[in-house]
Amino acid sequence: MAQRSESRPVTISDVQQLVKRKDEIEAQIKACYELLDSQKGVGMNEPLVDAEGFPRNDIDLYQVRTARHNIICLQNDHKALMKQVEEALHQLHAREKEKHAKDEAEALAEAMRQNQSMPQAFAKVNTVTPGSPASISGLQVDDEIVEFGSVNVNNFQNLQNIATVVQHSEGRPLSVTVIRGGKKVHVGLTPKRWAGKGLLG
Asked: Which UniProt keywords apply (predicted)?
């Protein structure tokens, strides 16, 4: 019987081929048993000689011997094949497990990379007044500010820094970068006088 080469990984179709071969062998074994059955129900162990020790003449001795021999060979093949099926399934399962672990590790590494590439926030938006410059620019509550004009995590000391930038940029667009839902979002914000307090709201 042809052995599978171990150099390439087992595939589902390999297993299907093995199972198909197993079914064929089982059908052959069944046919041999049916043949023995047709010979006066001779099984695998009944004597082939009569009481006087002469070959029985009520059965086809050649057919019975051939069928018995085939059954033994086929059963050995079947046993070896079942071992192959088991090993193949084992390999497939192990590879699935390995692939799953690899996928999980990759997803984790990707998440780590995402986090590393996310700049550090130094302030968080608590309220946005409707109709204010901040609202019009698209700023939202819970946005985490990572850049506000020239202010970032490296030079931010207190909110006065932002107030200074705002006063100096009245009527001019400021580039603001925020983290929203785990993604970096850029907002163009123009501080200006409006109906409410301050230049931002």
From this structure: Chaperone, Coiled coil
Reported as a single tens digit per residue, the pLDDT across 78-89 is: 999 999 999 999
Largest CA distance in the chain: 125
CA atoms within 13 A on the CB side of 127: 4
Segment 32-68, tens digit of pLDDT: 999 999 988 888 988 888 889 898 888 899 999 999 9
- Can you read off the two tokens belonging to residue 103? 């996928």
pLDDT tens digits, 181-197: 878 888 888 888 877 77
Q: Residue 64: which of 88, 87, 43 has the closest Cα?
A: 43
Our CA angle for 9, 13, 14, nearest 5°, is 55
Angle at 6 between CA 23 and CA 102, to 5 degrees: 100
Question: Is the torsion defined by CA of 75, 79, 82, 88 positive or negative?
Answer: negative
